[in-house]
Protein backbone atom coordinates (compact mmCIF):
# COMPACT_ATOMS: atom_id res chain seq x y z
CA UNK A 1 0.00 0.00 0.00
CA UNK A 2 1.12 3.54 -0.71
CA UNK A 3 -0.04 6.71 1.00
CA UNK A 4 0.09 9.38 -1.69
CA UNK A 5 0.15 12.94 -0.36
CA UNK A 6 -0.66 15.74 -2.78
CA UNK A 7 0.17 19.39 -2.14
CA UNK A 8 -0.20 22.27 -4.55
CA UNK A 9 2.63 24.75 -4.06
CA UNK A 10 1.94 27.80 -1.92
CA UNK A 11 0.87 31.11 -3.43
CA UNK A 12 3.50 32.48 -5.80
CA UNK A 13 4.57 35.86 -7.06
CA UNK A 14 3.07 36.84 -10.43
CA UNK A 15 5.29 36.09 -13.41
CA UNK A 16 5.49 39.80 -14.23
CA UNK A 17 7.06 40.49 -10.82
CA UNK A 18 9.29 37.40 -10.74
CA UNK A 19 9.82 35.32 -13.91
CA UNK A 20 10.89 32.27 -11.86
CA UNK A 21 7.63 32.58 -9.88
CA UNK A 22 8.96 31.73 -6.41
CA UNK A 23 6.64 31.47 -3.45
CA UNK A 24 5.31 34.82 -2.34
CA UNK A 25 5.74 35.84 1.32
CA UNK A 26 2.16 34.63 1.89
CA UNK A 27 2.96 31.39 0.05
CA UNK A 28 6.01 30.81 2.24
CA UNK A 29 3.88 31.34 5.33
CA UNK A 30 1.18 29.01 3.98
CA UNK A 31 3.60 26.18 3.34
CA UNK A 32 5.50 26.69 6.61
CA UNK A 33 2.25 26.33 8.55
CA UNK A 34 1.16 23.33 6.48
CA UNK A 35 4.56 21.73 7.00
CA UNK A 36 4.34 22.33 10.76
CA UNK A 37 0.91 20.68 10.81
CA UNK A 38 2.20 17.74 8.79
CA UNK A 39 5.03 17.27 11.29
CA UNK A 40 2.58 17.60 14.19
CA UNK A 41 0.50 14.79 12.63
CA UNK A 42 3.71 12.67 12.59
CA UNK A 43 3.54 12.22 8.83
CA UNK A 44 6.82 11.22 7.23
CA UNK A 45 7.77 10.49 3.63
CA UNK A 46 9.82 7.82 1.86
CA UNK A 47 9.96 9.98 -1.26
CA UNK A 48 9.22 13.58 -2.18
CA UNK A 49 8.70 14.61 -5.79
CA UNK A 50 8.60 18.21 -7.02
CA UNK A 51 8.22 19.73 -10.45
CA UNK A 52 11.16 21.66 -11.89
CA UNK A 53 9.35 24.96 -11.14
CA UNK A 54 10.91 26.97 -8.31
CA UNK A 55 7.69 27.34 -6.28
CA UNK A 56 7.18 23.57 -6.33
CA UNK A 57 10.77 22.91 -5.26
CA UNK A 58 10.49 25.49 -2.45
CA UNK A 59 7.28 23.81 -1.24
CA UNK A 60 8.94 20.38 -1.30
CA UNK A 61 11.98 21.68 0.60
CA UNK A 62 9.86 23.24 3.35
CA UNK A 63 7.89 20.02 3.72
CA UNK A 64 11.09 17.96 3.78
CA UNK A 65 12.72 20.08 6.48
CA UNK A 66 9.63 19.96 8.70
CA UNK A 67 9.22 16.19 8.42
CA UNK A 68 12.87 15.15 8.61
CA UNK A 69 13.21 14.11 4.97
CA UNK A 70 16.66 14.82 3.47
CA UNK A 71 16.32 17.83 1.15
CA UNK A 72 19.07 16.38 -1.05
CA UNK A 73 16.84 13.38 -1.81
CA UNK A 74 13.92 15.39 -3.23
CA UNK A 75 13.32 14.16 -6.75
CA UNK A 76 12.54 16.70 -9.48
CA UNK A 77 10.31 15.35 -12.24
CA UNK A 78 8.55 16.81 -15.27
CA UNK A 79 5.80 14.21 -14.74
CA UNK A 80 4.28 16.43 -12.04
CA UNK A 81 4.18 19.65 -14.08
CA UNK A 82 0.84 21.43 -14.47
CA UNK A 83 -0.21 20.11 -17.88
CA UNK A 84 1.19 16.59 -17.57
CA UNK A 85 -1.54 13.96 -18.08
CA UNK A 86 -2.42 12.11 -14.87
CA UNK A 87 -1.53 8.71 -16.34
CA UNK A 88 2.07 9.90 -16.85
CA UNK A 89 2.25 10.93 -13.21
CA UNK A 90 0.96 7.48 -12.22
CA UNK A 91 3.71 5.88 -14.31
CA UNK A 92 6.26 7.86 -12.30
CA UNK A 93 4.63 6.66 -9.06
CA UNK A 94 4.75 3.05 -10.34
CA UNK A 95 8.55 3.34 -10.30
CA UNK A 96 8.33 4.03 -6.55
CA UNK A 97 6.68 0.70 -5.74
CA UNK A 98 8.78 0.25 -2.58
CA UNK A 99 7.78 3.65 -1.15
CA UNK A 100 4.94 3.58 1.35
CA UNK A 101 4.56 7.34 1.81
CA UNK A 102 5.09 9.75 -1.09
CA UNK A 103 4.58 13.51 -1.30
CA UNK A 104 4.01 15.16 -4.66
CA UNK A 105 4.49 18.94 -4.50
CA UNK A 106 2.97 20.01 -7.77
CA UNK A 107 0.59 22.15 -9.73
CA UNK A 108 -2.96 22.44 -10.96
CA UNK A 109 -4.54 20.98 -13.01
CA UNK A 110 -2.25 17.92 -12.77
CA UNK A 111 -2.92 17.34 -9.06
CA UNK A 112 -6.71 17.56 -9.42
CA UNK A 113 -6.62 15.27 -12.46
CA UNK A 114 -4.42 12.76 -10.64
CA UNK A 115 -6.63 12.74 -7.55
CA UNK A 116 -9.78 12.48 -9.67
CA UNK A 117 -8.37 9.58 -11.68
CA UNK A 118 -7.46 7.67 -8.53
CA UNK A 119 -10.72 8.43 -6.71
CA UNK A 120 -13.27 8.24 -9.54
CA UNK A 121 -11.55 6.49 -12.44
CA UNK A 122 -11.92 9.65 -14.55
CA UNK A 123 -9.21 12.30 -14.86
CA UNK A 124 -11.61 15.21 -15.30
CA UNK A 125 -10.97 17.40 -12.24
CA UNK A 126 -13.65 16.58 -9.66
CA UNK A 127 -11.83 17.43 -6.44
CA UNK A 128 -10.70 20.70 -4.91
CA UNK A 129 -6.97 21.17 -4.43
CA UNK A 130 -5.83 24.26 -2.53
CA UNK A 131 -2.52 26.12 -2.41
CA UNK A 132 -0.61 24.55 0.50
CA UNK A 133 -3.47 22.17 1.32
CA UNK A 134 -2.71 18.49 1.90
CA UNK A 135 -4.60 15.54 0.47
CA UNK A 136 -3.87 11.89 1.24
CA UNK A 137 -4.99 9.03 -1.00
CA UNK A 138 -4.47 5.37 -0.03
CA UNK A 139 -3.42 3.32 -3.05
CA UNK A 140 -3.78 -0.43 -2.37
CA UNK A 141 -0.79 -1.67 -4.35
CA UNK A 142 1.71 -1.08 -7.14
CA UNK A 143 0.22 -0.15 -10.50
CA UNK A 144 -3.18 0.32 -8.91
CA UNK A 145 -5.27 2.95 -10.64
CA UNK A 146 -7.78 3.32 -7.82
CA UNK A 147 -7.42 4.78 -4.37
CA UNK A 148 -9.39 5.83 -1.32
CA UNK A 149 -9.42 9.35 0.07
CA UNK A 150 -7.91 9.27 3.56
CA UNK A 151 -8.21 13.04 4.08
CA UNK A 152 -8.14 16.40 2.37
CA UNK A 153 -7.14 19.36 4.52
CA UNK A 154 -7.33 23.00 3.53
CA UNK A 155 -4.55 25.42 4.47
CA UNK A 156 -6.86 26.93 7.10
CA UNK A 157 -7.40 23.53 8.73
CA UNK A 158 -3.66 22.89 8.66
CA UNK A 159 -3.04 26.22 10.42
CA UNK A 160 -5.34 25.08 13.23
CA UNK A 161 -3.62 21.69 13.45
CA UNK A 162 -0.25 23.46 13.61
CA UNK A 163 -1.54 25.34 16.64
CA UNK A 164 -1.68 28.80 15.11
CA UNK A 165 -5.10 30.43 15.35
CA UNK A 166 -4.32 33.09 12.75
CA UNK A 167 -5.72 32.27 9.33
CA UNK A 168 -3.54 33.90 6.71
CA UNK A 169 -5.78 34.62 3.75
CA UNK A 170 -9.26 35.66 4.76
CA UNK A 171 -9.12 36.12 8.51
CA UNK A 172 -11.99 33.70 9.07
CA UNK A 173 -12.74 30.03 8.73
CA UNK A 174 -15.89 30.60 6.69
Automatic annotation (TrEMBL):
It holds the Pfam family His_Phos_1. Its EC number is 3.1.3.-. GO terms for molecular function: hydrolase activity. Keywords: Hydrolase. This is Phosphohistidine phosphatase. The keyword Hydrolase applies. InterPro entries: His_Pase_superF_clade-1, His_PPase_superfam.
Amino acid sequence: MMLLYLMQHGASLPSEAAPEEPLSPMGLEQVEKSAAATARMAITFDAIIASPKLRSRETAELMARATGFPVSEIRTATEVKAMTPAHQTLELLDALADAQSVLVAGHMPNLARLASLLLTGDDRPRVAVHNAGLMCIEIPGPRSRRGTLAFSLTPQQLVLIAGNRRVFDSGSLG
